[in-house]
Design a protein that fits this description.
Largest sheet: 9 strands, mixed
Helix content: under 10%
Structural class: mainly beta
CATH superfamily of the largest domain: Glycosyl hydrolase domain, family 43
Radius of gyration: 23 Å
Number of strands: 29
Number of domains: 2
CATH topology of the largest domain: Tachylectin-2, Chain A
CATH class of the largest domain: Mainly Beta
Length: 480
């Protein structure tokens, strides 16, 4: 194992950026309500009061470092002729008793028919699928609703009843099909009765399409919260935002307002899938963000709230990168459980051919440790480029391994000029150097690079193999 210590000199042009301060004043967390066409009274704030120790807890979570561990594929698509032959996605995982996990997921067969499947597991990694879908378009049609597809399930258990929320493309009274959030109930988790729509889209609004529901119990306020995505078609391309509604019985829902929206110029230019979890007074969102716009290249990030409405993004977003070969095109549509002092994350992974369900864990830490590449493959003249790694760090340690020679370097965001710099020079000069000719001589050789630099905002790792073969690359970083 060889160590190289790289010190960036005066030629480095990196402007330090102060991270946004949390605007938390006194004990009251402000939030904004969104205007709707309904004339019903506004619901009361979900949880309006905070205390100094709660504010400190929020700030700690926003600044929290994480260790990421990718376990890989846990739910593959089914065999030829099965209801999930083409796609298995949109996982929602719940604890069903002390010894079992239960997963509901979106499934698509070879003909394009969307249904909702179910599987069980003892460890969250090895899953046994129910042989048939638990929700189908025909079930919703038989209940009297004009839909052609069902997907994006979320389940909760209350008073020995399973409540399964999902999205369906209901024909609206004002014309087009628009995703609407439905509810079905069951006493065994397998055989469901369709209750009907619980949240409709609103014409010519920020919620002309409502989908991706995720329901949690918020003990601090004694209320159920539903997070969901609304589409605004009044602009092009349409905007996606995360909204929140509340309920006291899981059947009747009142809109509360917008919880989170995209950020211009950041990793989450468009928001897609989401999941949520309540930890004491805190609500945690895990959501997928796209960059660049229209690429469908997504990663996963976190946001935190003290009232269930006003969310603050993690300083470390995106916290989960597209590290594995099977998820190299995108990771999205997560389901999270906080258990055993760690955040368990089930999510969609897309390699360019199939969407399947993967699993990873996030562990609280004093430093960030990110798996950047895990056995990723690249063939010259193609280039292997990591997701952007964000946050305020003084030291970056890069651990790198490849089974073929090539060049590895990092690209850094220049805050002054608002451009990405390809940080490149030869090792032999005492100047701004971060590029290195990687030479492979024997198995399992690793090169360790330590970069001691001014605080930076964003960087990524790039590898180009020498001509000849397909290179298999693994890399991870330790950030402090």
């Amino acid at each position: 194992m060889t160590a190289h210590t790289l010190r960036l000199g005066k030629h480095a042009k990196i402007a330090a950026v102060l991270l946004p301060l949390l605007a938390l004043i006194g004990g009251l967390v402000a939030y904004s309500l969104v205007s709707y066409t309904s004339s019903s009274p506004r619901p009361a704030p979900v949880y309006p009061w905070t205390y100094p120790e709660q504010i400190q807890a929020l700030e700690t979570l926003v600044k929290r470092h994480w260790v990421t561990v990718h376990y890989g594929l846990v739910m593959d698509t089914g065999p030829a002729g099965s209801f999930d032959e083409a796609i298995a996605s949109n996982p929602c995982v719940i604890r069903d008793g002390p010894y079992m996990y239960r997963m509901y997921y979106s499934a698509r067969d070879a003909s394009g028919r969307w249904t909702i499947g179910m599987a069980t597991s003892k460890d969250g990694l090895s899953w046994t699928k129910h042989p048939t879908p638990v929700i189908t378009p025909e079930m919703v049609q038989d209940a009297g609703y004009d839909v052609t597809r069902v997907a994006q399930p979320c389940a909760v258990i209350s008073n020995d009843t399973y409540y399964l929320f999902f999205a369906a493309d209901l024909r609206q009274a004002w014309g087009p099909r628009r995703h609407t959030i439905f509810l079905a109930t069951s006493t065994d988790g397998e055989n469901f009765n369709i209750y009907g729509p619980v949240l409709y889209p609103i014409k010519d609004s920020m919620e002309e399409r409502v989908w991706q529901p995720y329901v949690i119990w918020y003990e601090s306020a004694g209320v159920w919260l539903m997070y969901y995505i609304g589409n605004d078609y009044r602009v092009s391309p349409s905007l996606r935002r995360i909204f929140v509604a509340q309920s006291y019985d899981l059947y009747n829902w009142e809109r509360v307002g917008m919880a989170l929206q995209h950020t211009e110029g950041e990793w989450d230019l468009r928001i897609f899938g989401l999941s949520a979890w309540a930890i004491g007074d805190m609500v945690m969102l895990c959501y997928s963000g796209e960059f660049p716009r229209g690429s469908y290249a997504m990663s996963l990030g976190l946001a935190f709230s003290l009232d269930g409405i006003t969310f603050f993004r993690s300083y470390r977003n995106p916290v989960l990168l597209k590290a594995m070969e099977g998820e190299k095109r995108r990771i999205s549509d997560s389901s999270i459980i906080w258990e055993g002092g760690k955040l368990q994350v089930w999510y969609d992974g897309f390699d360019g051919h199939k969407v399947r369900i993967f699993y990873a864990e996030l562990l609280p830490s004093d430093v960030d440790i990110r798996q950047v590449f895990i056995h990723r493959h690249v063939h010259w003249p193609n280039v292997l480029v990591s997701d952007w790694i964000n946050g305020r760090y003084d030291t970056i340690r890069i651990y790198f391994h490849a089974n073929w020679t090539g060049w590895v370097w990092i690209e850094i965001w220049d805050e002054e000029d608002q451009v990405y710099l390809e940080s490149w020079n030869y090792e032999y000069y005492e100047s701004f150097y971060t590029g290195y000719k990687y030479r492979y001589h024997r198995p399992c050789k690793q090169e360790i690079y330590t970069l001691e630099i001014a605080p930076l905002r964003s960087f990524r790792i790039v590898f180009v193999p020498d001509p000849g073969y397909v290179a298999e690359v693994s890399a991870w970083v330790v950030l402090s």
